[in-house]
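To the wet lab folks,

You asked to see what we're planning to order before we commit. Fair enough. Below is the target structure as C-alpha cells, and below that is the sequence we designed to fit it. If anything looks off to you, flag it before the synthesis order goes out.
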C-alpha cells in the first residue's frame, strides 16, 4: 500500500509542467479508464538519469516502453499487514540529486510512512544504481549487515 500512497500523493503534488515530454495515454476499455505513462527523452535525461552517462541515457531511450500508473491495480489490494511487511526494518535512501522525486518530497515521504533509518548517497540521481553504483552497493551492504546479518 505504500507504493499506492506514494504514487497517488506524488501525482497530486507534481504540476503538469514538471512532467515535461512525458505522455499519459488511455489504454484498455473505456469502462476501465486506465492510463499509461511513457517518459519522454527530455524527462529521462533531465529528471531520471540526469547524472548518468550518455550511453546509459541512450540505452534507456532505446528500451523504453509505456508503463501503467498501477493506481487502479493497487487500489483493489488489501493493505500490507503489520505481521508481514510491518515487521520488517525499513530504510530509505535519499538521493539528493533526484530531479524526478525532489528531496523535499523524499523527506516528506520518510516522515509520513515511517522508517527505521535514513541514509543518503551524495550526488546520486533518481537512478542511483547507475549514477552511483559503488556507493549504492556499499549502502545496501551496510543495511543488510545492520538489520539482517
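Sequence we intend to order:
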Amino acid at each position: 500500500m505504500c507504493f499506492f500512497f506514494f504514487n497517488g500523493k506524488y501525482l497530486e503534488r507534481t504540476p503538469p509542467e514538471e512532467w515535461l515530454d512525458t505522455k499519459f495515454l488511455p489504454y484498455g476499455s473505456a469502462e476501465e479508464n486506465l492510463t499509461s505513462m511513457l517518459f519522454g527523452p527530455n524527462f529521462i535525461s533531465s529528471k531520471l538519469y540526469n547524472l548518468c552517462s550518455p550511453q546509459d541515457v541512450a540505452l534507456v531511450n532505446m528500451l523504453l516502453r509505456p508503463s501503467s500508473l498501477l493506481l487502479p491495480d493497487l487500489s483493489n489490494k488489501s493493505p500490507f499487514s503489520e505481521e508481514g511487511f510491518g515487521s520488517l526494518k525499513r530504510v530509505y535512501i535519499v538521493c539528493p540529486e533526484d530531479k524526478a522525486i525532489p528531496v523535499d518530497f523524499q523527506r516528506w515521504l520518510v516522515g509520513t510512512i515511517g522508517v527505521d533509518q535514513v541514509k543518503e548517497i551524495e550526488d546520486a540521481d533518481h537512478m542511483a544504481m547507475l549514477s552511483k553504483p559503488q556507493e549504492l552497493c556499499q549502502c545496501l551492504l551496510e543495511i543488510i549487515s545492520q538489520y539482517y546479518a
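Structural context that might help your review: The longest strand covers residues 23-27. Strands lie at 23-27, 34-38, 67-68, 91-94, 117-120.

Thanks,
Computational group
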